[in-house]
Structure formats: C-alpha cells, structure tokens
Amino acid sequence: MDMTWIVGAVLILVAVVVGLLAWRRLRLLREGGVHVAVRTHRNGNGRGWHLGVGRYQGDEFVWYRVLSVRPGPDRVIRREGLEIADRREPTSPETYSMPLGSVVLCCRDDDGGEIEIAMGVDAMTGFLSWLESSPPGRSVPWAS
User: Fold this and answer.
1) Which of 62, 71, 77, 74 is closest to 113 using CA atoms?
2) pTM of the model
3) Distance set, CA 129 to CA 35, 73, 96 (Å)
4) Where are the domains of the chain?
5) Is 75 exposed, middle or buried (0-12, 13-18, 19+ CB in 10 A)?
6) Architecture label for domain 2-135
7) pLDDT over threshold 90, residue 14
8) Are 92 and 108 in contact (CB under 8 A)?
9) pLDDT tens by residue, 76-98
10) DSSP classification of residue 70
C-alpha cells in the first residue's frame, strides 16, 4: 500500500513538472519568442545543441532552454559587439536537435567568445534585422 502511494505521488509530481515546462514554453512563444537551438562548444560530431525559445528584449536576445526550470533566461546574447563569422547548413547529425529548416549562424562577441545559433529562415531574418538595426538613441550616419 505504501509503495503504491509513493509511485502515485511521483507520477503526479512528474506530470506537474511536465505541465509547467509546457506552459512556460507556450507563454514564451506567445510573447514573441522563436524556436532556437544554441551550442557554445563546437565539436565535429554534431553534439552539444540545446533547443529553446529566444526573445528580443531591447539590445539583448534572451534564450530559455526548453527543459530548464530556471525562472530567468539561460543565455543572454547582447547585440553590441556581436558579429556573424559564418553561416552554414546543419550537418546530418545536427538536424535532430534543432528547429526544422534551420540555418546555423556562427557568431563571435567582443570578448572572443563563440556561440552557434540555429534557427529557421523566418526567425533568422528577424535575428539579422535585429542585429543590424541601430540601438535606441544612437544615430546611424549613413541613414541621415
């Protein structure tokens, strides 16, 4: 009898956690988020990708990992100093862990840190537009 109660409690706890993760993902997507996979350590076997939801917040692109219970973003990518070093198609082993139709952007920041971001073509168009736009309060000399 005691074992049945423990198993039931564990199953209820698992269902609650899965429900909270699904609710969080839907909330992020409804607030303007896009499906994005991120990898911070490059390797040749296609591993290390993490699926999540990214959102724009001013000069920052915040990324929330899908299977994280962390209340805040798991990664913050600042627009200032970020540059795209390369753009490529994903390799076969990589495609399992990223959104369908993704393109991989290999990026560098001012500190020399590298990050790979994989997103669909529509999301990438928005990301490139955000990256190339002028931050609020700054003038772009060639636009005047």
Assistant:
1) 77
2) 0.71
3) 17, 22, 27
4) 2-135
5) middle
6) Roll (2.30)
7) no
8) no
9) 988 888 888 899 999 888 888 88
10) -
